[in-house]
Amino acid sequence: MAAPQMENSMQQGLLMETAGGNTLDAIVAGEGMILRQKTSECCRCCCCQPPIHWIVTPYDPNWAHDKPYPTIASVSEVGSTWCGRCCSFNAPGFRKTKYEVRAGIYDEEAPNGAPVLWTHEKAETCGANVYLGQTDSGQLRVPCCCNLPYLVTKDANGAQLGKTQYLCDACLFVPKFSVHDKNDNEVYRLRPDTCFFGCCVRCRCTCNTKDGKCCRVPFLVRDPKTLEQKGGQVTDLWAGVASECCTHRGTYQIQYPPQCDNSMRATLQGSALLVDLVIFEQDQD
After folding, report:
1. pTM of the predicted structure, to 2 decimals
2. Which pLDDT score is estimated for 103?
3. Does residue 282 surpass a pLDDT of 80?
4. Quick check: 260 and 22 in contact, CB under 8 A?
5. Range with the lowest mean pLDDT among 49-58, 198-207, 259-268?
6. What would the pLDDT profile of 72-88 be if each residue is shown by its tens digit?
7. 33-65 pLDDT tens trace
8. How far apart are CA 64 and CA 43, in angstroms?
9. Are 120 and 273 in contact (CB under 8 A)?
10. Phi, psi of 42 (to 5 degrees)
11. Main-chain phi, psi angles of 31, to 5 degrees
């Protein structure tokens, strides 16, 4: 293992030990986390869509897909139905679903009895948009602006820790999310940079794929009123050729903003899952 990664893993282990072992506080300790998709989607098509499971690895600002990282938590999708997954392409984010977060490595096919530490869940809603058909220029979709997708983050006892809500406003081509605390106060606005008077998404281009995809769209954590950046982000990372082209496994870097408490850190994990659910998941079909 390379020296920087060994140091990062040791720091994460120390943070987990200090925070009390396999607890929510231990898993969300540090500057952030990496959310890596475990489920392969190489054969995904319509009714063949499986539940999507994830693993959590330590945050590394210099993350690279070919570095070895320890698994500190597992995220299992347990609340979706076959019909809901089958229709997800037609209305991204509409399906009822639930994600359970456990410490360490968890095998959904052979449960080991590890307790659920927190969850992200939603009821059936409208999708972020609706697929109407195919044209010579690509897919024809119409955005929805009511009863939109969300994820509520709850602790092991079912108490709400926070909520992430997909938003619709006049800038229909710019995806954005409101992030709320346990009292339903909007604390953050999650939105990419924009151009053309705020009407279009502005990509960030780089030739260094170890920092992210060549053309990626970071969702930046912002003040909900001024929309000024607060220092955190959710970014879709380059997961390697095999994961990007064959198995379609996504990878997200979650960086916490300053003065972010542990409840909101767990909620930002749900924000990353919702970003994938309503935006990137449909791109695999």
Report:
1. 0.87
2. 93
3. no
4. no
5. 198-207
6. 999 999 988 888 888 88
7. 999 999 877 766 656 778 899 999 999 988 888
8. 26
9. yes
10. -65, -25
11. -85, -15
Reported as type and span, the H/E element at residue 234 is strand 229-236
Alpha-helix residue ranges (DSSP H) falling in 79-209:
82-86
C-beta contacts of 222-231 below 8 A and 24+ residues apart: 222/188, 222/189, 222/190, 222/191, 223/188, 223/189, 224/178, 224/186, 224/187, 224/188, 224/189, 227/189, 227/191, 230/188, 230/257, 230/258, 231/255, 231/257, 231/258
Task: Write phi, then psi, for 82 (nearest 5 degrees).
Answer: -60, -45
The C-alpha angle 261, 32, 2, rounded to 5 degrees, equals 150
- pLDDT at residue number 20: 47
Mode of pairing for the β-strands spanning 160-166 and 219-222 = unpaired
Average pLDDT (157-176) is 93
Alpha-carbon distance 175 to 192, whole Å?
A: 8
Q: Which residues pair with 37 in a beta bridge?
A: 54
CB 194 within 8 A of CB 174: yes
Q: Which of 96, 67, 66 is nearest to 81 (CA)?
A: 96
